[in-house]
Design brief:
The protein is an alpha/beta fold. It has a domain at about 1-110 and about 175-205: Rossmann fold, CATH 3.40.50.300. The protein has nine helices and eight strands. The structure holds BIS(adenosine)-5'-pentaphosphate, magnesium ion (MG) and zinc ion (ZN). BIS(adenosine)-5'-pentaphosphate binds near residues 32, 58, 86 and 200.
Amino acid sequence: MKVVLLGPPGAGKGTQASGIVEKYHIVHISTGDIFRKNVKEGTPLGQQAKAYMEKGELVPDDLVIALVEDRLKQEDCKNGFLLDGFPRTIYQAEAMERLGIDVDKVVDIEVGRDTLIGRATGRRVCKQCGETYHVSFRPAKAEGVCDKCGGQVVQRADDEEETVARRIDVYLTETKPLEEYYEKKGKLAHINGDQDAKIVQEEIFKALGD
Ligand code: AP5
Ligand code: MG
Ligand code: ZN
């Protein structure tokens, strides 16, 4: 199964991804996570991506496409994959098709702007394993310490309110047109993301045919 998770910043793509990949035995590919790892390690790719990410802008298409093309060639993608945060422009979606990569379903998690700002600004992530928390909705058991691995739980560099607002605007202009793009292909499933995360998960499973 090849699935794309679409949705604005803070919609819950990362949160929902873990349950999906577990159930369908596919790999989770988050372009944002890959970029953040490269930024942390100071690789050439990270150095190129850093300034765009800090401003809440998209990393240039060609950089992202090369990265995803390379990742999807790896052996573990043979059984299928879940793309989280890619494609993010029509250009990226078309490039993926030109590379012969077809997707079965596009899950669009929809959440209103006010909820998104609260979710992203309250988000905390584990520096070590990437586990996601929220100061109100999903706090770590011990403040600042990851439940899973004991790592340090911190705020993401692009989760300041101003940057989140910019990311939402970029989503609306650059990424939202993909809804219509995939709707026309009969691949889009709309999911109301503004409800309990467990219910969102159930609705996604239903859309993917359980
Ligand atoms: P990326 O990392 O993909 O960030 P994003 O799309 O902005 O999405 P987020 O990760 O912020 O949100 P999410 O939907 O995963 O929400 P989460 O589950 O964490 O991209 C970052 C940057 O990388 C981009 O800005 C760009 O620069 C670059 N980039 C990446 N891909 C690119 C591409 N293809 N092209 C160009 N540039 C690219 O949830 C958020 C919070 O809400 C958490 O605290 C969570 O606990 C909480 N929460 C989740 N669900 C619920 C719920 N149902 N109820 C209550 N709280 C909830
Ligand atoms: Mg995410
Ligand atoms: Zn951790």
